[in-house]
Amino acid sequence: MERSRVARREETKSSEKKMKRTKRPQKKKSGGGSGGKGPLWKKLLLIATGLFILMMLIGGGFAAYAVATAPELDEAELRDALPLKIYASNKKEITKGGTSREYVSIDEVPEVVKDAFISIEDRRFYQHNGIDFRRLGGAIIANVTDGFGSEGASTITQQVVKQSFLTFDKTITRKVQEQWLAIRLEQDYTKDQILEMYLNKNYYGQNSFGIQTASKAYFNKPVNKLNYAEAAMLAGLPQRPTAYDPIKGDPKLTKWRQTQVLNAMQTTGVITEAQRDKAVKQPISKLINPAPKSTKDESYDSVIFDMVSKELEDDFGLEGKDIYGQGLKIYTSIDKPMHDYMNEAIKKDQIVKMPEYAETAASAVNTQTGEILAVVDGKNPGKGTARRNYANEPHQPGSSAKPFFAYGPAIENDKWSTAKQLTDKPTEVNGKEIGNYYDGYRGTNTIRHWLKISANTPAIQTYQEIGGDPVQAFAEKSGLKLEDDESISPAYAIGGMKHGFNTTQMAGAYATLGNGGDYIKPHLIKSIEYSDGSKIKSPVKSKKAMEDYTAYMLTDMLRDVLKPGGTFPSAGLSFDAAGKTGTTNAYKDVWFAGYTSDVSISVWTGTTKSGNNNGAGLSGPYNSTMAQQIWKDFITKTRDRTPAPFEQPSSVLSIGNELYVKGTKEPVVEKKTVPAPTGLQASYDEDTKSGELTWNYNDAALRANGYDDVSFEVTMTDADGQSSTVGTSSTNRIAISGLKPGRSTFQVVAKASGEKSGPVSTTVTVTDPEAEEPTTDEPTTDEPTTDEPTTDEPTTDEPTTDEPTTDEPSTDEPTTDEPTTDEPTTDEPSTDEPTTDEPSSNDGANAQNNSNVPAERNNNPNNPNNSGDDSED
């Protein structure tokens, strides 16, 4: 028994030893720890597969949702073109744009027209099933090889779907719906039916929907008569109908787009190289032959439609096919009552009676937001294809350019104070001497004074000191960008430029000054609403154009323009405003651009090359003030509240009436003397015991010394030696009465800005009735009791008439600011624009009281158009 137990125990030990000898160590798995169950790449593959399946499930579910919520195909919507609705700021509809359409069957459309559209829009139209998968990559290649825009990313079928049912927000949902509906459309309709929808749904400009309407609008022929050159032009229009419009658009852009289409047609083999070259050489002006338009007067609201169309393309980045025919609602900033009043007032001569050959334009912009409130396209803008928008045409700005091309850059870059001294003296530009609108030169004074009276030579000197590059950069930031073919020069400081600017650009630039230096591009679209109710707000944003000290210091100087001594002395506004006049040679362009804290309005009056006056300019000094009078009427009658005053920023300090930038050296402000009156005379009737004192005054000398308003203080010492104040007068006379017997002495001093002149005196002797030998009742005259006045004007030349002189600028001080540069003064586009066929029946100068407002003129002796006279009604 015992041996058995021992034997069994030995056998167990032997078995355990044998197992230990035969056991092999485990190998580590590559790429993982000892606890892994398999290779890492297998794990990653498994995870990726899982994610792919998950994404497919999510994508499939999303696609299923997008398809389920897609709109149904509706044949009426596929064939109809809904108008573009435009609303004013009060939400009332202004106009419906692009509603004219003559539907045409595809059977009447020639192959050359089909080929043109298919070549540029969808080369594989007849091969795909609604979605061209090759097109996604092919579009990129085509745009590189054939030029940008030569082939879009969507097929014609997809475009029909977008124009009929979908919004144009770039979302995945909309793209999935677009592709799904495109496949559905291809299943339900033939290719020709889809192409027919497309050709009839597109907008082609000139208020024309559909290929038939466009063919007649541009070529005065039905679509079946079009040739390949004409077809190519029409095929290029839907992308940007406003910009490529061959009648009102840029001819260079129109030709560029037509050439793209011709290149595409040649690439696809529907025309030969020779045909392509022949069409490219043919000018657009020779190609078009517009159909006669109705003689019915067109509403000035059509100008808003044109501006909306351009803004949708330029600012929102939408193509024509994304805009028209969808029933979009455009909400604008147009203040309809203001817009209507301004247009009616100009077109019906309610403010001034304009000569029949003259034209005008105006734009009003919200100072704080840059939103366009009103636009005046002209007094007689014409009709049909001959209609012009003078508010959109560039005109030379004259001296209204000085704040942006001279003094503004100097304050911004070199921190000039308003007391900066410059000398009005002979100044040359490229060997030519620049003159002023007044005769001669006026010595040394502040830039405040020179801007106020609009002297030319100090502005030129400012430009020369600052330099062309900083000046151009400053102006461009303010919205006054030069064209590519312009090269800035000193003449630009006084507005002698090649092209100029339109009224909206000028209103926007001056709004920048009233907005603390923040520039907001003038725009009128506040938001877009799509057919599904979704909205997009304007993408226009504020940009810093200049420092707040520059904007305010310019504003403060431009306030003086509207005061006595400035170039618009009769403004007489009861609220805070600033602005600038501008006049070019022969009054071809006369401007006033002014602003308050809530609105900026620019007004242009003048003549055009194609006008009835043959571009000779406005005749007569009264016509040179029409822009000022129109602006004053607009700024006072179109706003229902008093604007807040301009606020001085903390970056600006003052000393006396002058301003300087905080942190710079305080300027030395020199106070010049106030010129004394001259020619004091007295008349007195002893029977009625009444009379008056009269005197003369040199307003020009007063302004030359930097003063504005002047008043006269009159004192008397009677026969008993008692002194008293007779009174204060703002004119050159004052009444006297009740004098005591004996000799009374009168003194008159001039007062301006708290300063006084030396006195001038005279005496009156009244007969004592009890005296045995009465003295003569003739008044005696005494010369000034001091060696003042300090004016350089000789007193012997002063008039001795009893009539008082006006306190407005004297007639030898015209208030315009003609540049005498020989830079081109035309503001007309190089193309031959048609003239209006509705000339005004009114003629001559305005019969209203001119209030002795002096006319701006150019006293350049080489200018034969200068009369040198001011006129009064």
From TrEMBL:
Biased composition (Acidic residues): 769-836
Gene3D superfamilies: Biosynthetic peptidoglycan transglycosylase-like (1.10.3810.10), DD-peptidase/beta-lactamase superfamily (3.40.710.10), Immunoglobulins (2.60.40.10)
Biased composition (Low complexity): 849-866
Biased composition regions of type Basic residues, renumbered to the chain: 18-30
Disordered as annotated region, ranges: 1-36, 377-401, 749-873
Pfam families, per the entry: Transgly (PF00912), Transpeptidase (PF00905)
UniProt keywords, alphabetically: Carboxypeptidase, Glycosyltransferase, Hydrolase, Multifunctional enzyme, Protease, Transferase
Domain (Fibronectin type-III) ranges: 676-771
Catalysed reactions, as listed in the record: Preferential cleavage: (Ac)2-L-Lys-D-Ala-|-D-Ala. Also transpeptidation of peptidyl-alanyl moieties that are N-acyl substituents of D-alanine; [GlcNAc-(1->4)-Mur2Ac(oyl-L-Ala-gamma-D-Glu-L-Lys-D-Ala-D-Ala)](n)-di-trans,octa-cis-undecaprenyl diphosphate + beta-D-GlcNAc-(1->4)-Mur2Ac(oyl-L-Ala-gamma-D-Glu-L-Lys-D-Ala-D-Ala)-di-trans,octa-cis-undecaprenyl diphosphate = [GlcNAc-(1->4)-Mur2Ac(oyl-L-Ala-gamma-D-Glu-L-Lys-D-Ala-D-Ala)](n+1)-di-trans,octa-cis-undecaprenyl diphosphate + di-trans,octa-cis-undecaprenyl diphosphate + H(+)
Cross-referenced InterPro entries: Beta-lactam/transpept-like, FN3_dom, FN3_sf, Glyco_trans_51, Glycosyltr_51/Transpeptidase, Ig-like_fold, Lysozyme-like_dom_sf, PBP_transglycosylase
Biased composition (Basic and acidic residues): 1-17
CDD domains attached to this UniProt entry: FN3
Segments crossing the lipid bilayer: none
Protein name in the entry: PBP1A family penicillin-binding protein
Organism: Exiguobacterium indicum
Lineage: Bacteria, Bacillati, Bacillota, Bacilli, Bacillales
